Amino acid sequence: MLNASPYVIFSGQAREALEFYQSILGGELRVMLQSQYNPDPAVADLVMHGQLDLPGFSLMAGDDPSGNTPPDSGRITITLWGDDLDEAHRIFDALGEGGTVNTAFSKQMWGDYYGDLVDKYGVSWAIDIDVSGES
User: Fold this and answer.
1) Do 119 and 125 form a contact (C-beta atoms < 8 A)?
2) Distance between CA atoms of residues 95 and 90, nearest Å
3) Could you give the CA distance from residue 65 to residue 10 in angstroms, rounded to a whole number?
4) Using CB atoms within 10 A of its CB, is residue 53 exposed (0-12), middle (13-18) or buried (19+)?
5) Do 126 and 79 meet the contact criterion of CB atoms below 8 Å apart?
6) 45-83 pLDDT, tens digit each
7) Structural domains in the chain?
8) Any long-range contacts for 106-115 (C-beta under 8 Å, 24+ apart)?
9) Rounded distance, CA 85 to CA 112, Å?
């Protein structure tokens, strides 16, 4: 069986972004710096590989040591879903601080609560909460 995890490439903000995500989502964060394997002092503080492990999900990230990563290189949306409306509101609001909300987190025509945004690091997020059991 294979597992899939999003891997986001940053231009020097990987550690800061992963720590921000951990402050919102929790989980265990592991970070490996370029200095552990690369003697070049110019890239020593960049993240070679970072991984935030959450129950059933891992978010991976690193910094592009070439410095050539275009700002819109990701073309990825990290989607969170479930049925905890209060937790979803908390996460959406926290991820949106300093970012751009594209769709406000609210009840949608299909019945779910949904919102999407681009966080302050340029990463797209979507949250969809199924409230079909709501009374």
Assistant:
1) yes
2) 9
3) 9
4) middle
5) yes
6) 999 999 999 998 899 999 988 877 666 655 678 989 899
7) 7-63 (3.10.180.10), 77-129 (3.10.180.10)
8) 107/131, 113/85, 113/88
9) 10
Question: What pTM value is reported for the model?
Answer: 0.81
DSSP the chain: ------EEEESS-HHHHHHHHHHHH--EEEEEEGGGT---GGGTTSEEEEEEEETTEEEEEEE-TTS---TT----EEEEEES-HHHHHHHHHHHHTTSEEEEEEEE-TTSSEEEEEE-TTS-EEEEEE--TT--
Structure tokens at 10: 């940053």
Q: Which two tokens stand for residue 122?
A: 């340029």
Q: Which of 38, 34, 60, 66 is nearest to 48 (CA)?
A: 34
